[in-house]
Design brief:
It is built from 3 helices and 30 strands. By secondary structure, the chain is mainly beta. Strand 18 and strand 19 form a beta hairpin.
Length: 401
């Protein structure tokens, strides 16, 4: 209702999705059982060696939407009143995080009138590229028979989840980087991987260490393997290995590169629906030498509880390239002594083999011996991060004054 009066229109929204293949349920019977001959004959007709039955299973609920899927929805606007309405305008929007996408905008000129018991139908589609909570916003405006302009608005919420769980392991061997990517199917359904790609950044070269399988026709047992498809069941994983090198790039600079390339997966679901998703491959998780060192000096002779004190911080760039550092405090790592100031201070450009000094204020919250942790430096040229923990040990005394 709106303003105490019922709406003349009803709005229905349904998600369009493919059915699934029904499971083949095997049963056993003897001829002496009731209807045993009929059951045995039916089992023989269905026993084709597959686990799929001749039926399709319709979804019983909204279902799960994954990254890379195409969201499709059916919208029906029906006139449930005994009078005709006019100037029907429909707008369908999808709100994903901070972004709002207009999926449909039908002005009132397209539907000048809607008679009683008649309906207007729409189908919208949108490729899902963002994870998290999404809102489908349906707004309808129309004019009643008495000339009143009325709005009707409904919001439907659904969650988008990750289909793939990616685990990355990096290992430097001399001037070469080996990247192992473990791709896990996070859903309960089986998907078919039909293409995997890796594209390094412009200054790097790579070698695919995933040997292409050559299977003789006589030894082929899995038709999907023969077609170049890999079946990935729910919860299972596949591993891919790449060797990356940077010809002409100094080792120190190569080890400090933040982004290595883009890993892409193209997969197919039941009924041939194909989707694609890309993942950024970074050096996070490896332990390259980023060429930064940090020290804290000029500690007061006495540090009292709940009394701020200042330390002199010196950041040295020992690498072979310039950096643009930003100082960030990771407060969940700090215990006993907290940083007393605003996180995210830009320190300006720091050339190689140079240093910068600046003060940092701290606030002790607990007495005793504590280590200063949670100081992070972000190199803004490549977004690489360096965490400095256990930089200095400080004895905090009770304030007896």
């Amino acid at each position: 209702e709106d303003g105490g009066r019922e709406h003349s229109l009803s709005l229905r929204v349904m998600r369009l999705t493919m059915p699934t293949f029904g499971a083949h349920h095997q049963f056993f019977a003897e001829s002496a059982d009731v209807c045993g001959d009929v059951l045995q004959q039916q089992r023989i007709q269905n026993d084709d060696g597959s686990l799929l039955s001749q039926s399709l299973a319709l979804p019983s609920n909204f279902g799960t939407i994954f990254l890379g899927d195409v969201f499709a929805s059916y919208i029906s606007v029906c006139n449930t009143s005994p009078y005709a309405v006019s100037n029907l305008a429909v707008k369908i929007e999808l709100n994903a995080g901070q972004n709002r996408h207009v999926l449909l905008e039908s002005p009132s000129s397209r539907t000048p009138a809607l008679k009683p018991s008649c309906n207007k139908e729409f189908i919208v589609r949108h490729a899902i590229v963002e994870e998290g909570v999404h809102h489908l916003i349906c707004t309808v405006q129309y004019t009643r028979q008495d000339g009143e302009r009325k709005p009707l608005r409904k919001v439907f919420k659904f969650k988008v989840e990750k289909l793939f769980g990616i685990k990355q392991r990096n290992e430097f061997v001399g001037d070469r980087l080996f990247v192992e990517l473990q791709v896990q199917n996070s859903s309960k359904s089986t998907i078919h991987i039909d293409r995997v790609t890796f594209e390094p950044i412009e200054s790097l070269q790579y070698r695919d260490l995933n040997e292409k399988r050559r299977i003789d026709e006589e030894e082929v047992k899995d038709e999907l393997s023969a077609l170049g498809l890999w079946t990935l069941k729910g919860g299972h994983q596949l591993c891919y290995l790449y060797e990356i090198s940077g010809s002409g790039i100094p080792v120190e600079k190569f080890r400090s590169i933040g982004t290595v390339g883009v890993f892409g997966i193209t997969w197919t679901k039941s009924f041939g629906a194909s989707s694609k998703q890309q993942f950024t491959v970074t050096l996070q998780g490896s332990t390259p030498d980023l060429g930064l060192s940090l020290s804290l000096t000029h500690c007061p002779a006495q540090v009292l509880l709940e009394r701020p004190f200042v330390l002199q911080c010196t950041l040295v760039n020992t690498g072979a390239t310039h950096v643009v550092p930003r100082l960030v405090f990771v407060r969940n790592k700090m215990d006993g002594i907290m940083a007393n100031g605003v996180s995210g201070k830009d320190l300006g450009e720091l050339p190689m083999q140079s240093s910068v000094s600046f003060p940092i204020s701290f606030f002790p919250v607990r007495p005793g011996v504590h280590k200063i942790n949670g100081i992070r430096v972000i190199n803004q040229t490549n977004n690489s991060k360096t965490d400095f923990d256990n930089v200095l040990t400080v004895h905090v005394e009770e304030n007896t004054a």
